[in-house]
Amino acid sequence: MNLKEAITEIIDVSFNENDYFDAHTVINELVKNPKYYIEYLRGYSPNMNIAQYHASIAQTISSIENVKKIGNAKSHTIYGDIRENTLFQKV
Fold this sequence. Notes:
Elements lengths: L2 H12 L5 E3 H10 L4 H7 L6 H13 L4 E10 L5 E9 L1
Antiparallel strand pairs: 1-3, 2-3
Helix pairs in contact: 2-3
């Protein structure tokens, strides 16, 4: 399994058609779920900071066929602070 496959599986399993979600929700699932966290760690490069890495995860989410970018929302990051983030809908 690679990072995109892990993200796709999270979306397929965790969300129903027309559900809204954001990248922070997917990232939190990658980090906390033993099935996915290794792929999360493998995807990180020392050439980027965590915000850049998470932005690349949002771009990966955008590339998944049954996902549509809706706009922006605010939600908790992995650090517990509230930040603006891309809002998606599973279609």
